[in-house]
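INFO batch 0412 | record 1 of 1 | parsing
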Amino acid sequence: MTEAVPTVRLGDGLTVSRIGFGGMALSDVYGDSDPGEALRTLHHAVDQGVTFIDTADVYGEPRDGVDGPAGTNEELIAQLLADRRDEVQLATKFGITGEVGGAGGSATRGDRAYVRSACEASLRRLGIDVIDLYYLHRRQLDIPIEETVGAMAELVAEGKVRHLGLSEVTATELRAAAVVHPIAAVQSEWSLWSRDVEARVVPAAREVGAGFVPYSPLGRGFLTGAMTPERIAGSMLRDEPRFVEHFAANQPVVDLVRAIGREIGATPAQVALAWLWAQGEAYGLPVVPIPGTRSPHRVTENAEALRVRLDAEQRSRLDEAAELVHGDRNLSFTTKGWISADREEAPST
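INFO prediction complete | emitting C-alpha cells
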C-alpha cells in the first residue's frame, strides 16, 4: 500500500500533490491507447493521492475538419473530473495550434482573442467552471509575453482560472511575465539527461516565487530502461537522434541509474524522480515532476519514489550522468526557438 502522497505549495498559493500525473501519455503520441484503460489509470492515480493532473488542449488525436487543437485528452480527463473534481488540481495549457508530433506542431498563438477562446474551449471540453492552473504552453515569439500574460490575468480576474503557469520560457521571459501577474509554476523538461534549465530558468523561478513542474522527468521513458527500439519506432520519438541514432551510446546513463537503484532497493524510475526532488532542495524551490504512464502499477511505483533518499555520493554520481548523454533534447518536428534553451542567453561568467 502506498503511503499518503504529501502536498506541496508551488507559487501564488497553489497547493498540489508532491508528484503529479502527465496526461499526454494517455494519448496516441506514444502508440495506440485504450480510453477505458486510460480512465482506470487516472482513477488509480487519484486513489493513490496523485491528484495534480496535467493535460493540454493539443494532447490527443486530431479530428477531421477541426481547425486547431482537438482536445481529446481534455475530454478523457473530463470523465475523471465528472466524478472527482473536488479531489483534483487540474492543469491545462494553450498556445500550440498544431498537432503534437505532426508537421504543424510548431505553430503558436498568444494574442488576447486566442487566449480567451482557447480557455473557453478547454473549460467546455473539461466540463468544469474554473481551471486550477492555466499554462501558456508555448509563446508566440512575435507577441510580447507581457501581452499574453495580461490576457491570461483577465481570466483570473473573471474567475475562469485560479493560477497562471508558463511552459518552456526563458529566465528573462519569466521575469517579465511575473511583473504582470504572479506565476505559480514553470513547466519545462528537466531530468537527469535534460538539465539546461538549471543554468538560468530554475534560479529565475526561485527568484519570482514560482514552483517548477518538470515534464518528461524520466527522459520520455528512456531513463527507466523501458524504451526499446521497437517501442520507439511506434511512437513520436521514431525520428529523434537521442533515441534512435544514439540509443546504444546512451545506455551507460541507464546502467548508472539501474546500478544506484540496486544499491538502495529502488527502481530506475524512482531513482530519477528522487534525484529531481533532491535538485529542488538544492536550488531552494518546490519541484513537482509529472511522469506519465498508462499503467496503474507504474503510477504506484512513481508515487513510492517519495520514500527514496539518495546520499551525497549517489547524487554526485548521478550528476555526472549528463556527461554521458549523446544528443540534445530538441525534437525534430519543431522549429528553432521551440524550447527555452534555444532562446536563453548564455550565463554570465
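INFO post-check: Residues 219 and 326 are 13 Å apart (CA to CA).
INFO record closed
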